[in-house]
Write a structure and sequence with these properties.
single chain, alpha+beta, OB fold (Dihydrolipoamide Acetyltransferase, E2P), globular
Length: 114
């Protein structure tokens, strides 16, 4: 993220699918009845263990299950940090506006990414 970029908070984002501990798909309400469907996001600032390939771990599957139970099918605010290499970078604001990324780190499901 460039130093000039400021996060943009979307409202009425419905998390439709959790891909792994740090990647999810959401429908985003842009306002005035305009929605962007099936938008893929990567959690900003956190890296969770892998669930596929040679680096697949049990902890990665646990992280995915935890995140899925916490956010899938529910409505949240999403703070977007712009486009990353492969998808949008964002954080999900849990009740009390606590970022999901910090929550996952504090619960031991991920590590801080710089």
């Amino acid at each position: 993220m460039s130093k000039k970029s400021k996060p943009f908070i979307f409202s009425k984002c419905v998390i439709t699918r959790v891909i792994d501990g740090d990647t999810f798909v959401a429908d985003v309400d842009l306002g005035f009845g305009v929605w962007v469907r099936k938008q893929k996001f990567r959690l900003y600032g956190v890296d969770t263990p892998e669930i596929r390939g040679k680096k697949k771990t049990k902890k990665g599957l646990e992280a995915k299950t935890y995140v899925k139970e916490l956010i899938e099918g529910k409505e949240f605010l999403i703070k977007s940090y712009g486009r990353g290499k492969y998808r949008w970078l964002a954080d999900v604001l849990l009740p009390g506006e606590r970022p999901l990324s910090l929550h996952l780190i504090s619960m031991g499901y991920g590590k801080e990414m710089r």
